[in-house]
Automatic annotation (TrEMBL):
Domain 4Fe-4S ferredoxin-type: 1-30, 59-78
Source superkingdom: Archaea
Endpoints of the signal sequence: none
GO molecular function, one term: oxidoreductase activity
InterPro entries reported for this sequence: 4Fe4S_Fe-S-bd, 4Fe4S_Fe_S_CS
Protein name: 4Fe-4S ferredoxin
Origin species: Methanofollis fontis
Length: 90
């Protein structure tokens, strides 16, 4: 699973940046075509929901998706053999 922010729906309220326990959202810096500064993902692979949702078959956190008033955050299945960034934190 991977996290997607739908830029056409997001109004830039940045609630997701406040509630994520893994701090994978950061306030954006560049306005999009509509003039909305959309949050950006910062190493989303740190989110256990993204990594383990399929394994456990249930939503583990999902606070960002629940708090989003515009329903702009969602998870999508990754394509088979899609390249993934691996991060090792010490």
């Amino acid at each position: 699973m991977k996290l997607i922010i739908d830029e056409t729906r997001c109004k830039g309220c940045n609630l997701c940046t406040l509630v994520c326990p893994y701090s994978i959202f950061q306030e954006g810096t560049t306005p999009n075509r509509r003039g909305v500064v959309v949050p950006v993902l910062d190493r989303p692979e740190r989110c256990t929901n993204c990594r383990l949702q399929k394994l456990y078959g249930r939503v583990l956190c999902g606070v960002c998706q629940m708090i989003c008033p515009d329903q702009a955050i969602r998870w999508v299945d990754e394509k088979p053999y899609e390249p993934q960034k691996v991060v090792i934190e010490y």
